[in-house]
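Hi R.,

As promised on Friday, here is the backbone we talked about, encoded as structure tokens. Could you run it through your design pipeline when you get a chance and send me back a sequence?
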């Protein structure tokens, strides 16, 4: 009974983690470029009462062992990098990546971070920046007298300036990819940082090296599916309740056994 109490408690803690992950997914259902997470679990160690293949007292080989599990634990929260739906905004600085890859932005300390969120703006210097003011890498500067900005699928950025008839090329957006995107570290603000598990970034032109292309005037929305998350939420809640009932049943059995002594 004592084993059942602790085992069921690990199940309740695991389901609490599952609910926490689902809550974060649902909270970011309208966050551009957000990628949902999935909680992964492992069973804990087993207490072996009798090993399979051991010899019984009669000299026979035991075909099946006797093991009792000690519960479950969360081992990872994995980002799922499936592509979200594209939303048309008609904003010339809203960009969506169709396919793999990440935008590169430079944080305040000079560290390059990676993001799928493409809601860019211009700052006082004309640089294309994120909502937090982090400039795009490589830097793209839009002239203050630009009448329109055009961004091609391969990342080439051009601007038509007032009084001119031909657009001027401003630069080219480069995307980055990783051998293991799931190994990237979440930083909040829709930013990711590389780790030893993710590998080093491979930078290239959109449409090459397995990188996606860029769509101007669109945003990639969250890949969270509300119906799927609600189903997982119900399953997690029911699993939590069942583990709570196991604790209640074990407690009643323990009380009965102690009262009978």
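Update: got your reply. Pasting your designed sequence below so it's all in one thread:
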């Amino acid at each position: 009974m004592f084993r059942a109490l602790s085992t069921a408690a690990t199940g309740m803690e695991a389901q609490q983690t599952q609910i926490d992950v689902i809550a974060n997914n649902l909270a970011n259902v309208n966050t551009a470029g957000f990628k949902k997470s999935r909680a992964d679990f492992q069973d804990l160690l087993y207490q072996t009462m009798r090993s399979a293949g051991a010899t019984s007292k009669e000299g026979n080989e035991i075909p099946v062992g006797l093991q009792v599990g000690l519960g479950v634990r969360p081992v990872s929260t994995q980002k799922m990098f499936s592509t979200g739906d594209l939303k048309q905004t008609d904003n010339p600085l809203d960009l969506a990546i169709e396919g793999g890859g990440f935008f590169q932005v430079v944080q305040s300390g000079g560290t390059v971070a990676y993001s799928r969120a493409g809601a860019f703006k211009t700052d006082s210097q004309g640089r294309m920046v994120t909502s937090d003011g982090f400039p795009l890498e490589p830097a793209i500067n839009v002239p203050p007298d630009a009448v329109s900005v055009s961004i091609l699928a391969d990342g080439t950025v051009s601007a038509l300036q007032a009084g001119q008839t031909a657009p001027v090329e401003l630069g080219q957006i480069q995307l980055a990819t990783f051998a293991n995107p799931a190994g990237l570290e979440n930083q909040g603000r829709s930013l990711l940082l590389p780790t030893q598990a993710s590998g080093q970034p491979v930078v290239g032109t959109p449409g090459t090296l397995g990188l996606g292309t860029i769509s101007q005037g669109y945003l990639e929305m969250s890949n969270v599916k509300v119906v799927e998350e609600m189903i997982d939420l119900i399953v997690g809640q029911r699993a939590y309740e069942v583990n709570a009932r196991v604790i209640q049943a074990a407690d009643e059995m323990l009380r009965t056994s102690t009262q009978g002594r």
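One thing I noticed while checking it: The mean pLDDT is 92.

Thanks again,
M.
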